[in-house]
Amino acid sequence: MVPAGYHWEPSDEKYRKEYEDNCFDAANKSVGEAQDALYSCAPFIPEDYFNGYESVLNKCKEQINVVAFRYSKSSIGDSRKGFNLRPDDYKRTIEINEQWRKHNETIRDYLSGLDIVD
Q: What pTM value is reported for the model?
């Protein structure tokens, strides 16, 4: 939704709107599913790991809210026209990706250190 690098989208206005709507719907659904999964497993996740993933989730929610604002309707019409993402929005995407990788690596290190009992 908020690209951090190379980005492709249809040039035709009608198809671009449909593409953006599909991306938004998929992202919104994914964030909801991630939230449900994280919170349902919270009692079984060490606090540091939970907090790390919750931080990523909160940044994702921020991105959803930024884009949702773009989709809000007003009496003037579609607010998508004239809507511009700020540099912080692009930076947040990079932060999300970096935090995600960092926390996954932390979990991998933790798992590799566990003893397997047969």
A: 0.77
Please tell me what DSSP assigns to residue 29: H
Among 57, 51, 1, which residue's Cα sits nearest to residue 25? Answer: 1
Residues 6+ apart with CB under 8 A from 15: none
97 contacts: CB under 8 Å, gap ≥ 6: 4
- Write out pLDDT tens, residues 54-113: 999 999 999 999 888 876 655 344 555 656 778 888 899 999 999 999 999 999 998 999
> For 83, how many CA atoms within 13 A lie in the half-sphere containing its CB?
15
* CA-to-CA separations, 79 to 45, 91, 92, 107, in angstroms, rounded: 41, 23, 22, 41
